[in-house]
Amino acid sequence: MGALLLVRHGEADGNRDHRFIGQMDVPLSERGRRQAAAVSERLVALGVRRFIASDLRRAVDTIAPAADQLGVPIETDRRLREIDNGEWRGLYAHEVAARWPDVWARYRAGDDVARPGGERWADVRRRVVGALREHADDLGDGELVAVGTHGGPTLAAASWAVGLRPRGNLYQVRLSLPWNASITTLGFPGPTLVGFNDVGHLPPDLLGDAEMPFLQRP
User: What does pTM read for this prediction?
Assistant: First the structure.
């Protein structure tokens, strides 16, 4: 049995104030770089020797210290990107609510609405699961592969592994949004959710609440 270790990127510019970052290619914050160093130490200690990431730099840069230490390349896969926010890109929740009040009300109520010019969470789940299936097929027996990705894709993958399918948007599953620089482990053949939102490698000052204040949960 092998495993994919899904690493949510470290804190990025815009995370703390809850902007709709999505596929904006924003860098890690100073705190995010410290989180990246901590999670990379954990990955090396676990024996990870292969690295795959979303092509957005915050995902790549989170696992880069480990890959650099081992002298191995990071493979990139666009399917592991965060949701495409379309016209919501870079906005705050109150700005979205003012410009698209009807769509925002449905989103707050739990519907899987399409961002204007962007994606639905069902689109994200489909592409992420497809990517992970392919990467799992390449796993050797006992091999651990680090996968640098984002909060939404990690939550979609975890819900897939435990057989949860949201009836509305992604946040309707009974799992929380993983924290920055956390590790969520999927075992294969399976998938089996072996670990979720593991932040044991982060010191207390680098922990943070990943929840979005405007989300409604079941």
Answer: 0.94
Tokens of 91: 């906005």
- Structural domain boundaries in the chain: 2-206
Let me know if 9 is a catalytic residue. yes
Whose tokens are 């390449």? That residue is 138
Burial of 208 (0-12, 13-18, 19+ CB in 10 A): middle
Active site residue 94: no
Band the pLDDT of 218: cuts 50, 70, 90. Answer: very low
Identify the CATH class of 2-206.
Answer: alpha beta
The DSSP result for 158-185, as a single string, is: HHHHTT---SSSGGGSSSPPPPTT-EEE
Kind plus residue range of the DSSP H or E element containing 108? helix 101-109
The alpha carbon torsion through 2, 69, 32, 26 (nearest 10 deg) reads -90
Residue 175 has, within 13 A of its CA and on its CB side, a CA count of: 27
Instruction: Write the pLDDT tens digit of every residue in 23-39.
Output: 999 999 999 999 999 99
List the catalytic residue out of 9, 135, 150, 201: 9
- Residue of 11, 82, 119, 135 with catalytic role: 82
Q: How many helices (H) and strands (E) does the chain have?
A: 6, 6
Tell me the C-alpha distance between 111 and 105, whole Å.
9
DSSP-based three-state secondary structure for 78: helix
